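BUG-111 | component: ligand-complex export | severity: low

The export step for iron/sulfur cluster jobs runs without errors, but we want the raw record kept on the ticket for reference. Input record follows.
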Amino acid sequence: MAAFSRTNLSMTLDTTPSDAPSPPDSTVSCANCQACCCRLEVMLISDTGVPERFIARDRWGSQTMARLEDGWCAALDRTSLSCTIYENRPWVCREFAMGEHECLSERAANL
Ligand code: SF4
Ligand code: SF4
């Protein structure tokens, strides 16, 4: 599901070998997933151009991606399981790295 793949950012960290993060699991792909991470709450903490119809606000004005009754993000195409706003997806979605700990955790819980 190439159009869906999260940006796997390579970060330069000031780490020693002992605390370096483990490499991502290369066997994991969004193509063999079911958009597990698109059921998580996604806070909007910067303006990336998410269309208003996909934004939920609480009483204090905090913004998150709206989710529908099935639990998935409102911006997910239910047929292709791809993100319909990929170019404008929130920062949190851009940072969620395929094959790393949080991804593996969501897959273990939902696949
Ligand atoms: S949980 Fe991981 S593999 Fe599944 S869609 Fe999200 S980033 Fe892709
Ligand atoms: S904005 Fe796109 S990538 Fe982020 S949770 Fe929604 S469907 Fe998934």
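Assignee comment: Attached the raw record above. Helices lie at 91-95, 101-110.
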